[in-house]
Structures are given as C-alpha cells and as structure tokens.
Amino acid sequence: MSDSNNISRRNILKAFAAVPVLGALGFGVLRKKNYDNDIRDQIVKELGISYDPPVLPTIEGVDKSKPIRVGIIGYGIRGEQLMRAAGFAHPKTIDQWREAAEKDSKDHRLEDFLAQEDLNLQFTGACDLFDVRAQEAMEACSNVNRKGSKEQNTLTCKRYRTYQELLAATDIDAVIIAAPDHWHAQIAIDAAKAGKHIYVEKGMTRTIEEVFQLTDAIKKSNVIFQLGHQGRQTESFIKAKEIIDKGLLGKISLIEVCTNRNSPNGAWVYDIHPDASEKTIDWEQFQKPSPNKVPFSKERFFRWRCWWDYGTGLGGDLLTHEYDAINQIMNLGIPHSCVASGGVYFYKDGREVPDVFQAVYEYPERDLTFMYSATLSSDRDRGKMIMGHDGNISIGGELTVYADQESTRYKPLIDKGVIDPQIPIFLYSPGSKRIDAVTSATAKYFAGRGLLYTYRQGKRVDTTHLHIKEWTDCIRTNQQPSCNIDQGFQEAITAHMATVSYRENVKVFWDPDKQQVLKGKSLKS
Amino acid sequence: MQQSNVSYSYSGSQVTLLVVLRILIGWHFLYEGVTKLLNPSWSSLGYLADSKGIFADMFQNWASNPNAVRTIDFMNEWGLTLVGLGLIMGCLTRISIFGGIVMLGFYYLSHPPMVGYKYALPSEGSYLWVNKNLIEIFALAVLYVFPTHQIVGIDRLIFSKKYNKSI
Ligand SMILES: NC(=O)c1ccc[n+]([C@@H]2O[C@H](COP(=O)([O-])OP(=O)(O)OC[C@H]3O[C@@H](n4cnc5c(N)ncnc54)[C@H](O)[C@@H]3O)[C@@H](O)[C@H]2O)c1
User: Fold this and answer.
1) At CB < 8 Å, which residues of chain A contact B?
2) Fewer C-beta within 10 Å: chain A N or C terminus?
3) Residues of chain B numbered 45-84 and touching chain A (CB < 8 Å)
4) pLDDT score of A42
5) Which CATH number fits domain A68-232+467-482: 1.10.10.10, 3.40.718.10, 3.40.50.720, 3.40.190.170?
6) Residue to mutate, A83, A128, A229, ligand 1, most ligand atoms under 8 Å from C-beta
7) Residue B62, domain extent
C-alpha cells in the first residue's frame, strides 16, 4: 500500500470518526420512541378513547338573515358581560380596550371582541332601575357597529322604566334577564306569558315555590329558554363526559367540587356607585318581590347577594355552576338528600349569607356522594374531582385522568409497568394540537398553569358568547338548548335543598314521586 | 476561514478531551432537536410566554403571535438538530458553534436566573446568575478558540488540504 493511500485513508477515518456516535444516538432515539409508542398504543387500546378534541355539538340549518330583536333586563355587572358576549359593548369600553391595546400589544381584548361572530341581533329595549346603568345600557345596545365613543353617538334603543313595559313592546322577540336572583322567576314567567324567548341568569329562582311556577310557565309556553350556565360550552367538560361514559374511572363513589375566593370583590362587597341615590335608583321596584321591605339602602342595592331577601347565598350563586358542570357530565339529577352547614366566619360585615359553606348530597341510587365546599376567604384552589375505583379525573381548564394505585381494572397494566399511577393516563389541554398520554413534563406543567394554548389560534373564545349563540341558534331553529328548563329545574331544586338545609338546620329530602322537598324526616330510598 | 496553528501543539489527551467535549455538547443539541422534531405537539409557546427579565416583553410578544411561534418552533427544531450534527461530525463546526452560542444566548436571556424570578417550569437545580445555558455557552466558546474539527471531523476534508497533508 502506498504512503499517500495510507494518509488519505487515515484522513477519511479521522473525518468520519464520529459516525458511530450518530449511530448510537439514532438507535437510542428509535428505542425510546418505540417504547413511548408502545405505551401509548397499549393505553389507548385499553382506554378505547380518542385523543382528538371532543366533538362539539353544532346546530344545523341556522338562518341568521333575519335579526332577533332582544331586550336587556338588568344591566349591572353581568348584564354588561352578556351584552358584550352578544356583540354589544359600550362605546367607552371600546375606547378603553383600544387604548389598552395601543399601550400593550399583548392586550387582545378589542381584537378578540371584534373577531367574535356577529349573531345578527338587535337590542331594541333596555330596562334597569339605576339611571346611570339604564343610560349605559341604551348606549351599549345602540353600538351595533362595535365603535368607540367618537364614532358612535346615536341611540337606537328605547329605555323602559319597568320590565312589564319592555315585555309589552312589539319590537322585542327575546329577553336577557340579568337582574338579581329575587327577580328572575317573576320576570321570566311574565316573559314566557308574553311569548318572549328567555335567557335568564343563574340561580334560576330565589325560592323553591318559584322553581315550580317558572317551570310550569315555560312548559306551557313555546319560548326557547336558556339558563345562564355558560360552563355548558366548556370543551373539557364535554371531553370529561366522554371519558366517564366510557367507564374509565370504574365505579364512582365520590365527587368533590369547590369554590375558593379571597377578596372583597369575590365575597360580593362591590363598589357603591358615587351617583347612587334614592333619586337615581327605583328602590321600591327593586325590593318588590322580596319578603321584607326596608328603607332605601345602597348596600343592599349593590351588594344584594349578602341578604336572603334578594340572593341565594353560595348555594344559588356558585354551587349552581359547579353542580351544573357535573350534572352536564354525569346526568346526576336531583339528589335524594342534602345536609349543609357553614357560617359567617370572615366577612362579619352584617351579611346574612354564610361565607363558608358546605353541602353534602346523597345519591343512593347511583351509590355516590356529591360534595360542595366553599370559602370566600382562601384562594387555595381545589378543583373538581371525580373519584372512582379504577381512576380519578380532575377537571379544570385542562383535564387529567389518573389510574388508581389499587385499581382492579388497571392492575395488569400497572404490574407490567405500562401504567404508572403517578403519571396521568390521559391529559387534555384544550387548544393543544392533540392529547397525549406521554407529553413532556414541561408541556404538562405549562398547560396546568393555563399558560399553554391560550393564544394558539390567536384568539380566545368566550364561553358566554357560545352560550348566547346556542340560545339564538335554537330560537332560529326551534330547538332546545343545552341548559333548558329541565336542567334548570334540577339545578334550582338541588341548590335550594342546600340553602333550606343550612337556614333551617335540617336534613332535606327530595321526593321524586310527589315532586316535593321534604324537611327533617327520612325518606326510604 | 482563518486558520490558527494552536492545533499543532495539542497533546493526545488534549485532543481527545476537546473532541469528547464537542461530541457531548453536540449530542445534547441533536437529541433536543430530534425529540422536538418527533413530537408533533411540541411548541416553544409556553416557554416564550413564561419569559422574565429585560427582554421578557420581546419574547412574550412573539408568544402572542402565532406566525412568530411557528417560525421559532421551526428554527429551534432544525437549529438544534443541525448544530448537534455539525458538532458531532465536525462539519462546518465553527458556524455550528456560533449558531449554538446564539441559540443558548436566547435561552439564557429569555430565562435569566436572577434573584426574584420564578418560572412556571421548575428547574432541576438551583441557579443564581450562572446556569447550565451560560456554562454551555462558554464551553462552546472554548471549543471555538481550541478547534478540533480539522483533526477529527469532516471539516478535515472541506478545509485546508495543505494542513491535512502535512500531518
Ligand atoms: N353566569 C355567570 O357567570 C354570572 C356572573 C355574574 C352574575 N350572574 C348573575 O347575574 C345576575 C345579576 O348579577 P350582577 O352581578 O350583574 O348584579 P348587579 O347588581 O351588578 O346588576 C343587577 C342589575 O339589575 C337591575 N335590576 C334589578 N331589578 C330589576 C328589575 N326589576 N328590572 C330591571 N332591572 C333590574 C339593577 O338595577 C342592577 O343594575 C344574578 O342573578 C347573578 O347570579 C351570573
């Protein structure tokens, strides 16, 4: 062999000396990938559940060409949000969003609002008992073109002093009711009688009697009724239903849901408007349906949730959202019994309704307990948890399923090391490109903090918008929306059972045959 | 490309250790790149959104722009892979080292380990000012000034025929 041959051979050898390293890495990557795929395949096969986002129900054949004419009754905190979700923001709000977006390019509120689907609604009437809000409601109702205050100044909406006058108007097809709880039933019953479609906020009614009266009125009418639990539109709840319907958790014995807040605002100590006075507020009309009449009180007008005369406490205000979510997922229906307790432990500001509240519901026919626990003075988030013999699921923005260490069903897979009870067997982050049993720890961590996927499509979708859209789509196609009067009936009876139990210090029962809430004495299940 | 003569005076163990260091860093880059390429749901989004420090605004702005996120995802997946290949194979090594330093620089600046910054993703160690990104940056810088690619690497064939012959 010649010398130069030798040199060039050594040359080549030294040039490609690292090739075996690549080989080793390639081999390692393949092995790991196969291993992960194997695990995923086995889990997927075992669970029989797709890793695709849930199929969201859509309503076919919606003809939007003719506008629906809507009246807003109650334009407070929620009324304003509902109007925005329907596509009508106050011009000053548009100004603020625009300014905010100019200052901070990450502020997408205006962009998101403008991107929201036009439902072809006209807000022709507004009713509120506080002059300032009534004026603002008219201005928002008139802002069909989604403009700021410089571009928008003609009023196309009429103010009504009473909701009865609004309901009598012929240019109104439907109403959104966002007055306080003590007014819901009466206004909705009158609206049904007047043939107006109804979107009414939760808690559906203030009392048990009203639940029956309202249900009766809606059933006798032809109006489309939607109760304001926008959680019905949450993707992860729909996916959770799929998982539970497949029986992945095994026999479910306990469900735990919670409310955790820790600020005066979260505890309903809202600001009192500087222009509020007996002159600007129709106090007598406000307190008409309440059992006790008192002299004008700004506190009661703005912080009505703190008194039983107007509000329904944690039971009607927040338990209802949690219950409705689980009812949507598991069709719980009305429980057999309820015991509730709690007290005013932190906000000793003269309020009547408890700020710490627990309700325990029994479902003997389903062999399970449903438990609600709330405090308004701790932010420790406990999420929603559904616990079964084979696994548990926690539901928030994202959805996580763990196999149970002692599960019978998963035992073979746990023994084989395919399933690790410490690692979710199913993880769903809405908006992610796909759901994955073996995503990286990083992705899981970010998703859990809500950091992921919020901007993936460049816009966030507001569930309230979807909930109103479902209602108007149903009006246009004459169908029942997801949170109709039957769901509302279950929500309201269930919530009232807790309130009654707490206020009267008794265990309460639901008699499904007589359709009655019974107090204190046991019912055979 | 400018040729230094340092390599002439490396001892055998110096060459070995420098090449091993180069390959280890290359392995780290390549595996990071390949796992991202193989995972279709990987995205830089969460990482960008979690940025802190003086450049946080810039990184978070990118996070809120889907097009920017797509570009950054692509650049990371292929950047890491190519830098890794370059380092291991000793191919276009100086450009690879430079690219690696730039990428690590971005990682460092987007998540500087300063007092009082807390990140969503917990790190597996404890860092103050100095973290692994910074150390890897300087390890690459060392490789830049103590080159080995013309001793072991494809660059032997690409550059400096004269030098190779004289060995
Ligand atoms: N779905 C949700 O997430 C959600 C969120 C917040 C509030 N809500 C519900 O929305 C309702 C309103 O709550 P809010 O926080 O907006 O209260 P709020 O006090 O801010 O607003 C209520 C408004 O209704 C007006 N009003 C009272 N009686 C009226 C009547 N007879 N006719 C016309 N207007 C009347 C008042 O003047 C007031 O402006 C409540 O039932 C609440 O439970 C639901």
Assistant:
1) 7, 11-12, 14-19, 21-22, 25, 29, 33, 105-106, 108, 432-434, 436, 439-440, 442-443, 445-447, 449, 451-458
2) N
3) 45-47, 49-50, 60-61, 63-66, 69
4) 78
5) 3.40.50.720
6) A128
7) 12-158
Q: How confident is the model at residue A441 (pLDDT cuts 50, 70, 90)?
A: low
Q: Which CATH class is domain A235-270+303-459+493-519?
A: alpha beta
Beta bridge partners, A358, equal A341, A373
The verdict on residue B20 lying in a domain is yes
pLDDT at A427: 80
Distance, CA of B46 to CA of A454 (rounded, Å): 10
Whether residue B135 lies inside any domain: the answer is yes
Whole-structure pTM over 0.90, yes or no?
A: no
Give percent above pLDDT 70 in chain A. 91
Cross-chain residue pair A440–B42, CB shorter than 8 Å:
yes
Q: How high is the ipTM of this complex?
A: 0.84
What percent of chain A is modeled with pLDDT above 90?
73
Kindly state whether residue B167 falls inside one of the protein's structural domains.
no
- Three-state DSSP class for B31? helix
Cα four-point dihedral sign A210, A213, A216, A222: negative
Query: How many angstroms separate the CA atoms of B55 and B58, rounded?
Result: 5
